[in-house]
Amino acid sequence: MAGLAAFAVAAFTPVAAPLDRWLASAPDAGQADAVVVLGSDVDPNGRLPEDSLRRATEAVALYRQGRAPLVLMLGSRNGAASEAESRARLAEGLGVPASAVLTEPRGLTTAVEAQRSAELLLPRGARRILLVTGEHRVWRARRHFERAGFEVLAAPVPEGAPTSNTPGERLSAIGGLLQELAARALYRLRGEV
What we know:
Blueprint: H1 2-12, H2 16-23, E1 34-37, H3 50-64, E2 71-74, E3 77-78, E4 81-82, H4 83-93, E5 101-104, H5 110-121, E6 128-134, H6 138-147, E7 151-157, H7 167-190
Parallel strand pairs: 1-2, 1-6, 2-5, 6-7
Antiparallel strand pairs: 3-4
Helix pairs in contact: 1-7, 2-7, 3-4, 5-6
């Protein structure tokens, strides 16, 4: 009975909205040495899905605002296509000079992306970064990048629509938020915070 009640609340009320606000990270102000864009996804033809596009365009906006002189696009391969390279082409098409864009397509996890970023950026003196990822994932990602030697400024992007209008959309939103809560709990259990 409790499961049915929880299902009804999740599907037919806007319960996801306050949870979304609680989990979301606010952006940090300030200048950085580089913008670092965490991986999301890419299809085998190199097309970027919505989450990846949002992150890439946020990086371009931060670069254009003069918040950092360098952009590092992360994102693994899906077949022959690399998310990092697809994002770099997009950034260059939107006016970011190729000389200001680095790519790293080998990271499959946030921890690996943090290590690869450190290998590329720290020798260049780029220690203070604007970290672009989904607004709910900043909390976890920040810890990996701080452990890798970075000072992190959050540059979160929206991840979904918690105020969805249909029961299916609401269930999807609450599912993603609960997944993030579970991931945070796992980080705490492992001592990664």
